[in-house]
Amino acid sequence: MFNAVLLLRLAKHGVDIVTVGFFAWVALLPTFKFAWAPLLDKYDVPGFGRFWGKRRGWIMLAQLGIFLSTVAMAFTSSDANLPVTALFAVLLAFWTTTLEVAADAWRIELAPTAEQQGPMVAANLWGYRSAMVAAGSGAIYIAAKSDWTTAYLVIAAAAFLPFPILALTRSDAEHGGGRGAALVTGTIASLVVLAVTGVATAVVGWLLLKALGSVGLDNPDIVKYWVFAVALLPFFALGAAVPWIRNLPSDHRLLTTSVLAPYINVAWRFGLVIIPILLFVSVYRMGDVMALTLSHPLFNALGYSLEAIAFSDGAVALLSSMLGVALGGWLAAKAPMGWALAIGAVMSALSNWIFAWLAHQAPGGPVWFHIGSMAVTAGDFDLYLSMAIDQFGHGFEGAVFVVYLSLLVNPRFPGAQYALLSGLAFLIPRLLAGLSGVFQKAIGYDGFFIMAGAMSIAAVIFLPFIVRAMPRRDDA
């Protein structure tokens, strides 16, 4: 949702739609969270971990990172320097992702079975989507009444609120020490980590921009070929390695003590069927990601006010997504997983196709009814209806998908393996999302959303190959 707000902000500032699409690549960072997820499984955060334990300690560090990154986004809200905007957007994505890794590992440890995961996922996504929807719609509404700087500062303050609440929770049963000392030590250590991360990100970003410019990747036509090559590379590499990995003995060092053990274990457990599994998960969330990328630029292009967009992102999106999450979580716990996944794919497709219809509507028209002091016109109702269908469908699909991914994870490596699977699940969608502006210029908004919905429903092709996939019996 924060990425959607950023893309709307850029569109409002007149940034070209192709460049707006490129900013969707900020969301690629969570795709590679498996690169640092093992650190969250292996190490405690100094100070915080000593008192609150591994999972809560990392969550507290991530919350500080989210707070400071959002403040930085507030003071660069003019978007006068797009590389600086991108820097703080990447840092915000990094710490948000770190928070998700820690929370996902905690959830999987607490609820390892499908019956437990259904309600747990629904509750988790209710909280997550409620916070994201409230923050996103709140930022847009405040920007409409004031400016983007104020909006981001208010959201930063709200994002900080869980930190003192966690600080007041009881200590972890396996840890001791004083609360005050742990809080001071953890805060100092966290500020050091945040500073180092910020400097490292700036340096890497500068080098990356230099490298991209030197090979001509500022040309969208060239970018398309690189994007497809990067998207397919992991699957070619995995296809070549799986036969060798499959024959490793269960006590091999690569499966037990090496840094790569959590990732090699995934291919070792499932063998060659891991390839259709990963292809399935890579396509399944396509519609969700593509809709998030250009939905708000579409609203802006059609001429909807920030107030109308804020209401659609707020009450409309929150209620419909919560209903979708609840039904999706219930279905994933009660129905055969194959049927639940198939229904979710159809929901995702419909969620995109409704925006193809909206692209031919317009704001304004006669007033249909009032919500408090706000008059809802026929055009506004079109927007709210579209957002309701979109959020219900993607909430439903997302809940089913999270349960499915959680059941693929080996309980010995909950954080790292879930990070790997959920990261690869979004690799192709997020790479293609960066080209959304290129697609939109070629086929228009309606063609773009029709294409995105068709991509989502295509995932059902893989269901016959994956629904009966089971891990090998000799997995320790």
Automatic annotation (TrEMBL):
**Compartments where found:** Membrane
Establish whether keyword Transport is in the entry: yes
What does UniProt give as GO cellular component? membrane
InterPro entries, alphabetically?
A: AmpG_permease/AT-1, MFS_trans_sf
| Keyword Ribosomal protein attached | no
Topology in the membrane?
Multi-pass membrane protein
Which stretch is the leader sequence?
none
What keywords are annotated for this sequence in UniProt?
A: Membrane, Transmembrane, Transmembrane helix, Transport
Q: Per the UniProt record, which residue ranges are transmembrane?
A: 17-36, 57-76, 82-106, 126-144, 150-169, 181-209, 225-245, 266-284, 304-327, 339-359, 392-409, 415-435, 447-467
Give the PANTHER family listed for this entry: MAJOR FACILITATOR SUPERFAMILY DOMAIN-CONTAINING PROTEIN 3 (PTHR12778:SF10), SOLUTE CARRIER FAMILY 33 ACETYL-COA TRANSPORTER -RELATED (PTHR12778)
Which protein are we looking at? AmpG family muropeptide MFS transporter
Give the species this sequence originates from.
Sphingomonas panacisoli
Q: What is the lineage of its organism?
A: Bacteria, Pseudomonadati, Pseudomonadota, Alphaproteobacteria, Sphingomonadales
